[in-house]
Amino acid sequence: DAKTTQPNSMESNEEEPVHLPCNHSTISGTDYIHWYRQLPSQGPEYVIHGLTSNVNNRMASLAIAEDRKSSTLILHRATLRDAAVYYCILMSGAGSYQLTFGKGTKLSVIP
Amino acid sequence: EAGVAQSPRYKIIEKRQSVAFWCNPISGHATLYWYQQILGQGPKLLIQFQNNGVVDDSQLPKDRFSAERLKGVDSTLKIQPAKLEDSAVYLCASSHIIKRGYGYTFGSGTRLTVV
After folding, report:
1. Theoretical Cys-Cys bridge with B75: which of A42, A48, A70, B69, CB 3.0 to 4.6 Å?
2. Chain A residues near residue B109 by CB distance under 8 angstroms
3. What's the CA gap between A100 and A34, in Å, rounded?
4. Interface A:B, Cβ pairs < 8 A
5. A46 with B93: Cβ contact below 8 A
């Protein structure tokens, strides 16, 4: 699977928007971009995914660059519950559809 | 819908002992994964099942780890004998039959401490 690069950590104030960046310069045309997050002492949970167009759901928005070499996960109003490790993952277009996790970005939310 | 169930939640064993973890995936999910997560790292895939067949076990240390998925539903992961470096959280996940983009659902994991 293609590799992603994320900052190790970020901070945000509560109730402010958060933009979590991810670089994936070697992405192939059929790779989907997935975001998962892992709250303390829990398994990862699905946040959002996309291919080319920007995506919105109840949890977040995903903005994908036109060349697809980077993406940004947007949390519109950070809450204390959003403090977690956020993983940006590319899912291969062929074969086994496995999630390969990197180290992710640890998001801290300041009250 | 009910989530992915895992047990036990915690386990402490001495090195060279054996241990087994159990996973019950979401009903109807054909694909099941076991991941190992060492403290401070992202989860690492150990094995992937499609129904009751193994799709990928290339990262499973087969000299000590084994896994099975009987009847394409529940799964067990076993370590025998355990080493200190096996201390980690073992996560089970399941997903619908292959469709790129579908969200995967993870259990809360089993935290193993080997002393």
Report:
1. B69
2. 42-43
3. 10
4. 56
5. no
